[in-house]
Amino acid sequence: MQDKRNAFVKFNERNEQLRQQYGEKYKERQHSKGKLTARERIEILFDEGSFQELDAFVRSKFNGNKSEAFGDGVICGHGMINGREIFAYAQDFNFMGGSLGSAHAEKIIKVQDMARKMGHPIIALIDSGGARIQEGIASLSGYGGIFLRNIKSSGIIPQISVILGPAAGGAVYSPALTDFIFMTRHTGHMFVTGPAIVKQVLNEDITFEDLGGADVHSSKSGVAQFVYDDEESTLLGVRKLLQYLPSNNIELPPDGDPEVLAPERPEKLKLVIPDEAVSPYDMFDIINNLVDQDSMFEVAENFAQNMITCFARINNQVIGIVANQPQVMAGVLDINSSEKAARFVRFCDAFNIPLLVLEDVPGFLPGREQEHGGLIRHGAKLLYAFGEASVPKITVITRKAYGGAYIVMNSKNMGGDFNFAWPSAEIAVMGPEGAVKILYKKELAASEDPEKLKKKLIQEYRETTANPYIADEYGFIDEVIDPSYTRQRLIDAFAILQNKYMDKLPRKHGNMPL
């Protein structure tokens, strides 16, 4: 009996020691930096009282580390988010700057393996100074183990990284291997080499924010897909994203609210396309009049804004939307928009999320900068992504669909399951004006009134070549549809495609033009 009492005394003492470790002084240190503690972040992220910690009492195995603190700078475990099981780890900057040592890495690797084995998403809350210098090669080895698990889990379970503090050096590559990255402004930073190294090597002064802040990575580098002003909003954003994602590559995305709220004014779709072919319009006016009310959740909204990628629901079914944005650069395809869309398409395909393509694309962006930057290679990524995707794929051509860009945007011959067009669609090798200049060069040069002749020829070209009815007659689109009935046609088409199955040729993997 005495031994049993002693065992419970020891048990209670350890728990009390752990509780005191995360006391008020611990909170004050993190709050003074304008950040939440690792435990506060977990409390916001998970359903109340559902998080269960693993390996809470692990200590550093490194001989030179004299700290008696539990956990080795990372909190790992699992719990419920929106009623679904999720694994997570949260780095603790209060312990040696959240640096990664061998025990720290082993804890992360354990939850990565458990998440993959059990088929649950994993979330990484990053707040780390990088590799723990004191542990040398052991720390670097730990990163290697984490990266390998990121790769093994890719396409099997959703992986989400949340940058709430620094992510420096090797610490950036685990987030880069995950599916989505969230960042908090002013406190979240990512860079391979920090401002001090930049100053030393290049003699260039640059701040943490300008080098690797949230706005830089969401608008310029494209590394981060979601940015929020504070940590609570960032973590609530993660909870919202998970509402659109299945737990693994075997399951389907979760259902939303059983009461479907259809758009209020679908007839407005007839009025969205301007009378003038060169006039811009906002593609969101179309999206919001097709999908269920308040169901759209944009991905990478600040990067390559000439391309829209977002999740939404249509008749309560989760879909991924890829859409040209005529309001930005006329919706043209360039390096950044091609890569942004390709990555989104591949994610949706990996996790059984049907795709809707809304197309209004005048072509690829011309110029030396784009060609020298590898436009051909990057454009081929989107081509490859659509061609490889086996989920249901539906395209609606709202206006322009010219040249190679028409092919790339999930054309019928690239495997589109249903390809519709509105009466306003223009489908051709190139735009009417460019085509007329090439086809009627001699006639225009010899004309007494070349402008009048050009207008006449452009109109004839639209009537005889660049209209959806020609494509419809050849079977390159399935139907020209009334814009007002587009939502219902999409609901019907996605329903038909629920049992879609594609045989795949045996191979290890294709060689995507990375």
Describe what you observe in this structure.
The protein has 514 residues and is α/β, with parallel strands linked by helices. It is built from 21 helices and 16 strands. It has 3 domains: 36-242, Alpha-Beta Complex (2-enoyl-CoA Hydratase, Chain A, domain 1), CATH 3.90.226.10; 266-430 and 467-498, Alpha-Beta Complex (2-enoyl-CoA Hydratase, Chain A, domain 1); 432-465, no CATH class. 39% of the residues lie in helices and 18% in strands. Strands 1, 2, 3, 4, 5, 6, 7 and 8 form an 8-stranded mixed beta sheet that branches. A hairpin with a 2-residue loop joins β2 (74-81) and β3 (84-91). The longest helix has 20 residues, at 2-21.
Largest sheet: 8 strands, mixed
Poorly predicted runs are none
CATH topology descriptor of the largest domain? 2-enoyl-CoA Hydratase, Chain A, domain 1
Number of domains: 3
Mean pLDDT, all residues: 92
- The CATH class of the largest domain, by name, is Alpha Beta
Question: Judging by the overall fold, what is the CATH architecture of the largest domain?
Answer: Alpha-Beta Complex
Roughly what fraction of the amino acids lie in strands? 15-25%
Global structural class: alpha/beta
Provide a compact summary of the structure.
The chain has 514 residues and is an alpha/beta fold. Helix content is 39%, strand content 18%. The N and C termini lie far apart (66 Å).
